[in-house]
Amino acid sequence: MADKIVFFALVALAEISGLTAVVLIGLFGGQLNKEPGFSWDGSLKTFNYHPLLMVIAFIFLQGNGAIAYRVISATGLQVTRATAKMIHGAFQTSAFLIATVGLVATFKFHETQGWADMYHPHSWVGITAFSLYGLQLLVGFLFLVFPKFGSEVLRSRVLSLHVSSGRLIFILMIGSALMGMSESSIYDIVHPEKFPPEKFPQAVVVTNTFCLCLLLFAATIVSILWNPTFGPKRQKEDSVELITSSQRS
Fold first, then answer.
1. What's the pTM value of the predicted model, to 2 decimals?
2. Residue 240 buriedness (CB in 10 A; 0-12 / 13-18 / 19+)
3. Between 175 and 150, where is the model more confident?
4. CA distance 238 to 144
């Protein structure tokens, strides 16, 4: 009972911090950036889609997708294994599609401004994480959903790799988001030397608070994923079933 209370407290904290981060990054792009608002005209308003969509996709949706099995198990919902997989897959696929639009927004902005692409460490880390995420999604679907390539032994190993690599990719996404926010603070917020030390620009307060919410969200998601007492029973059954089937063959 105590474990379940802790679990749901962590989930609640994750949702509050995650949603707050989404609201803050939307506020930054919509009202506090050098060129606030959203538009698909190639201006900074186009770029403003990038952080908003990436945070929604690769932070909030990916994080919730990662703990979906655990939430389903903890709530006692009577759903089939296939349904649980569909819920998990819906989160992760939606995240990839939304993030793709966010990535395109960056390239469109750079092209319109005549800027080079991939010139900042954030870009390299971000595109690496994006590519790994796409590969993770494809391999997970082909081996664990349909048509389930390979033997039971291979699929058991793929499942184990899928779980561990998903956690790594999530951490990469958090790091990339923090690097991107640092870059944005340099280029898109009025230079701090124009303000007295006792007066921070509102945009700085918002972006710094956003980063703290991002770290809190990451900490709660990681705590849920790495705590063995929160592990979903159904995922354990998947691994046992695959290993048992391979031993019989």
1. 0.89
2. exposed
3. 175
4. 10
